[in-house]
Amino acid sequence: xxxxxxxxxxxxxxxxxxxxxxxxxxxxxxxxxxxxxxxxxxxxxxxxxxxxxxxxxxxxxxxxxxxxxxxxxxxxxxxxxxxxxxxxxxxxxxxxxxxxxxxxxxxxxxxxxxxxxxxxxxxxxxxxxxxxxxxxxxxxxxxxxxxxxxxxxxxxxxxxxxxxxxxxxxxxxxxxxxxxxxxxxxxxxxxxxxxxxxxxxxxxxxxxxxxxxxxxxxxxxxxxxxxxxxxxxxxxxxxxxxxxxxxxxxxxxxxxxxxxxxxxxxxxxxxxxxxxxxxxxxxxxxxxxxxxxxxxxxxxxxxxxxxxxxxxxxxxxxxxxxxxxxxxxxxxxxxxxxxxxxxxxxxxxxxxxxxxxxxxxxxxxxxxxxxxxxxxxxxxxxxxxxxxxxxxxxxxxxxxxxxxxxxxxxxxxxxxxxxxxxxxxxxxxxxxxxxxxxxxxxxxxxxxxxxxxxxxxxxxxxxx
Length: 464
Ligand SMILES: *Cc1c(COP(=O)(O)O)cnc(C)c1O
Prior knowledge:
This protein is α/β, with parallel strands linked by helices and 464 residues long. The protein has three domains: 19-77; 85-95 and 356-461, Aspartate Aminotransferase, domain 1 (Alpha-Beta Complex); 104-347, Aspartate Aminotransferase, domain 2 (3-Layer(aba) Sandwich). Helices cover 40% and strands 18% of the residues. It has a seven-stranded mixed β-sheet with strand order 5-13-12-11-10-6-9, sandwiched between helices. Strand 10, helix 10 (243-252) and strand 11 (257-262) form a beta-alpha-beta unit. It starts with 19 loop residues before the first helix and ends with a helix. Pyridoxal-5'-phosphate (PLP) is lined by residues 154-156, 182, 186, 227-228, 230, 260, 262, 294, 305, 396. The site of pyridoxal-5'-phosphate has 13 residues, from helix 7 and strand 11.
């Protein structure tokens, strides 16, 4: 970084580049070495020097510029792969963005239970080995009316475990209208096939009648499976057998009925304009032998698969060796139990579970927040407007529902703004609409408005 580092032939700009060793020993780099391991700093320096060698015209010109470029490169390496982003897409439960953010009580429960040892598989009353499958069960029974429950890794594994426990080596009957794909790698027929049950399809894509199921029930039938169409709606000339009808049919033939309803909705949201998803209590009441749902969709908790059902069916799941392969961990159980506890007081659940708070927030509140964000960005030198939008639930629930919302629309080249917000120090994910980058406030937890403003300012005020 000094004149002595420069080579003898100034005509070749590469000669002028300082060596890695020289940079490493320079005073400007000392603070970086105090913060990060030497090997990591060395790698960062090498990357910056290599880049300067490839494009000498863009090489740093003085010591401070070198230090700055190396600092930025180091920060990139120090940054965790998994990190927080602000979801301003308007899709409240965004599977790519981690679905439900957790309630403060759930985060506290993780901290309390996971910072020290806990009674994960220890019966404190008896002073002996216990089961991890007892946790959260009494709350699930209380909140859904189910006899018993087991919590596993996610809803897909819940489906595999339930089918394998109740129907392995036998036929599982399912409607062709319900052989659905839930996203990326989750196709109901593929998952079912892995469970050891043989899929028997009945009906047609648009219409399946109770008689279609009845017609194929025979010696080798092991179960009837009903899958809620959680991410699309079938309209027009359609027919399906509902859970109550199927449960009578199943009972007549002494077969289990498995109902995969997905969302994990525990409280009706009709008064907030969201209609058509069953609640877990409805699903249990309608007579399915087991009801399957996710923990991180409308329930608003951690990723988990919950099987609710009668004692015999749940016992079969619990003692299936496959349960070990899909078992839930203590962090999840801590967060799930704390989230469920909030539901004992529904108004508390609505306020403190971020997913429910976002979905049910009055439109006037969302508008006011958008206006406050706009004002702060505008004052900060970023021209923008507040625009009316439609947000959605996402995460495979209320697929066609449009929730009134407001967004801040930034002026300027939308693609470029989108990119800069995304790759900024604190990533903000918006969506492009009408040629502008929109930040929809419906999917941003209210407590994050300030961070949203600061992240946008930081990303758009600094040079690209
Ligand atoms: C989302 C969904 C699943 C998958 O749940 P995961 O918890 O992501 O495994 C399964 N079935 C239905 C009906 C769903 O909506």
